[in-house]
Structure formats: structure tokens, C-alpha cells
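Researcher: Next entry: DUF2170 domain-containing protein (Sphingomonas lenta).
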Amino acid sequence: MTDDAPRAWTISSLMSTLSQAGYADEFGVVRIEAAEPVLRVIARNYGDLSIFLSVAGEQIVVSTLLWPVDEQPNPDEFNRFILKAQKLVPLSNFAITDVDGRDYYELIGELSSESPLREILLELRVLAQNALDAADDLRTQFAA
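Model: Predicted structure:
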């Protein structure tokens, strides 16, 4: 298949493709079995950051956890800032998600399940860089 061939990606086809020799140095890939299978993509060039990838119908969702909301100094001010400054993280959106009863900031990217491979790779790289930038820049701006 060529990169531009229209197709709907599945968890299995993405795992197979990202596990190929050409991408193995950049990404580690582990399949997590759950109600809906998910891939844990380890972004090796970004400090082994874990990115979770799922496919649901016509959409691929990639996300990474940032830090617990209760550890964020001035969370109300920070939340207001990230809602107003969403443009600071291209191709990504902030969210708050519950993990085992604790709220975490999460960074999310979404694209079509028919996206070419180059767009999926770009999404993974941009999300990883945005997560590192958020941890380094945004979080420290709101230190107590």
C-alpha cells in the first residue's frame, strides 16, 4: 500500500505499520487489550513519552497524560489560560480526564481513520512535542 492509498486504519494495521523497521527506532508500540484495544506508542525521541492511540469508526485519537490537576498551582487560573490560549499547542487540545479517581491534564489530537501515514506520524510527533512544551513552559508559568 502506498502512503496516499485511501484506507481505514485499524489498531492492528497501525500496530503492524508502526512496528516496522523504518519506525522502530522512533516508536515502540504495545497493544493494550481492553473493551476497545488501544496502542501505547512510546515516543523514543521525546523521553519515552507514552502516547495512547485508539481507533473508533472514522476517527483516530492520540493522547498523553500530562500531570495531576491537584498538583497544578493555581488550577483555576491555569484552566482559564489554556482555554483562552489553545492556539499555543498546534494540532492538540487540552482536556481533563479521570484516571483511577484522580483528574489529570491530558493532551489530545484527532484525525481521520483514513489519514495517510505521514499525517499520523506528524500527529504523534507534534503531540509529543506539545506535551513536553506544556510541561516545561505552561505549567511553570503558573507556579505558586
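Model: Note for the record: The longest strand covers residues 102-112.
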